[in-house]
Amino acid sequence: MSTQRSATLTTADDLLRRPGDGYRYELVRGELRQMTPSGYAHGVVVANLTGPLERHVRAHSLGQICGAETGFRIGRSPDTVRAPDIAFVRRARQGAEPLSEGFFEGAPDLAVEVLSPSDTVYEVEEKVTDWLTAGCSLVWVVSPKRRSVSLHRAGAPVVVLRDTDTLDGGDVVPGFTLRVAQIFEW
Questions:
Q1: Can you give the residue ranges of every domain in the chain?
Q2: How many percent of the chain have pLDDT more than 70?
Q3: What is the CATH number of domain 39-183?
Q4: In what order do the strands lie in the sheet with 138-143?
Q5: What is the pLDDT of residues 42-83, one digit of tens each?
Q6: 115: closest CA among 47, 17, 32, 39?
Q7: CA angle 94, 141, 117 (to 5 degrees)
Q8: Is the pTM here over 0.70, yes or no?
């Protein structure tokens, strides 16, 4: 991941209007961060988790699942726009208006970050902290290499699940369960 530094800070509106150049970006405290394209294993893991999560959320009218390109504005002055690999927003937070063309204002209720070989420990910890500080109720950090899922909640110890465990949505995505091993099926 690289950071493009400039004399002036970039805003969320600047990012939204930025012409496409084939890369994804996040905006962290006013600075653009270019996101490295994901590898094959990363994409398979995201799909393996998105499918069951989407089916459950839709079947129970719980809210909306968003994909990796979705930006959430979680900070202002300077602006921060993050884009998790998977996000869930509860129906009660969506509002009655049609879906916005811009970034969602605030954090999702669930943010899922699937680790890539290029991710550093610092970058992952920074993302988790940003999500929780912005009001995200639950962050899942999925490690394809370790075949594990770490559950992060503000003020609570991290819980690590392995292949033989079952992931559940708790009070954030009620009723959702999935064997961790299924996330890593090839």
A1: 39-183
A2: 92
A3: 3.90.1570.10
A4: 63-66, 86-90, 110-114, 138-143, 148-152, 159-161
A5: 999 999 999 999 999 999 999 999 988 899 999 999 999 999
A6: 39
A7: 125
A8: yes
